[in-house]
User: What shape does this take?
Amino acid sequence: MKIEIVVYNIESALRAQEGGADRIEVCASPGEGGITPPYGTIESIRQNVSIDVYVMIRPRGGDFHYSNYEYHAMKRDISQCQKLSVDGIVLGILNADGTLDKKRCKELIDKARPLKVTCHRAFDMTRDPFEALEDCIEVGFDRILTSGHQAKAIQGVSLLAELVEKAAGRIIIMPGSGVNEGNVKELVAKTKASEIHFSAVACRPGAMQYKNPNIAGMGSDEGSEYMLRTVDPQIIKSVRSLIG
Assistant: This one.
């Protein structure tokens, strides 16, 4: 069983490796579901972890139907990732009708080689998961990260099991979204998935001693500028113990 952890900063990458993750997916902006991270962050992570590093190629939040300008930016981001010697990238482009944009996905996959390429949860926004499965295989994706067309993977467990069966080893189906210690054993048993994706998220106080009492959350009331998102290695170890 391979474990992939999504990380949003350098500390999280180091802690994911400490917990025994096999691979990390590096993103920025968790509130948008992940977009392409800064090159400095990618480079620092690549230089300081030995596990596989995959990078999100997504020029913005929102939907997965991109303009020509955004598509060109994705090409440039892939070129930079190749220069930084990452192991893979994560992407997905859809047509307005909810089908996979096979032409542009294939162009990006071909450009990215020899890097491995995962189709991210754009897959979950397609009109027909089985049509999208065959399209992903046709254009050359190595795996699909999916919640089974539901908000959380455990809710999409029946479809995930069907996808694993229909994939029949032609592509890896990797369940993700809301995966945790409480549901991972059931999820893996029912889907027979060989890889799993989750966040193992934790938060810790930042190092600031002075805190401006007039500002919380840079305009909101969260106070999030004094908390740092990270990864809990013990969660990864616990999940590993549950699924082997």
In short: The domain at 2-243 is CATH 3.20.20.380 (TIM Barrel). The longest helix spans residues 68-83.
